[in-house]
Amino acid sequence: MTLLELTAEEGGLPDQGRRRQAVTTSDLDMTLTAQIAVAWAGEGGEEPRLSWWQTDLVSEFGGEDLLKRLLPLTWPWAVLQAVREAARRKDEELRGKASDPDQLVTLYRFGFELDEQIEERLQAHKRSGLPPVEALPALAEVLGSTLHQSWDKDQFQGWVEAHGPVQAEAVPTGRLLKGAMPTGLDRRVAQLVAALAPLADSYPLPHFRVKP
């Protein structure tokens, strides 16, 4: 995500008459929490955590320092948006190596309609004026109440495993979850997060493969 994108006025995407999938705001919030938490944990940079992407955004002297000066009111959201985008791009890069990337469902790609609703929910939170850990209280478990939780790999792995159990197998694309993909967004998210365990040196791309 560029600085131009972060500083621009952003509104919800228009509904162009499509029949949208029914999903609750609590499921959208759970998804955003998981996406942001995993994105935070995956950072490298000067304060490395898992180093799945080489960014230093959720860091007092990294992305925060810059965005506090550019966006004094919304910098916490801007920081989390940026790190979430870094994770999404890595996810997209890895999916692109599959022979059927459009058939993969991942933590950062649920399909156009759901992805649109998740993004709209993020923008609504940003406009609300609430800080991230108040809008998404479950974030505090991973990032702390001020986005400065000390990195503890074992604690994060415990958070990941709490979403399980799940069965997955290693395939060239990443970690393929076994069985049918759940219909509920909350169960999809839980299984995709659970499949991050055991934590690896590179992003393992947990995914479902669906039929066209």
Features:
single chain; 212 residues; alpha+beta; four-stranded mixed beta sheet; 4 strands; globular
How would you describe the overall organization of this protein?
This protein is 45% helix and 7% strand. It is of the alpha+beta class and 212 residues long. It has one domain. The chain has a 4-stranded mixed sheet with strand order 1-4-3-2, covered by helices on one side. A hairpin with a 2-residue loop joins strand 2 and strand 3. The longest helix is centred in the middle third of the chain and has 21 residues. The N terminus is likely disordered.
Write a brief structural summary:
This protein has 212 residues and is α+β, with helices and mostly antiparallel strands.
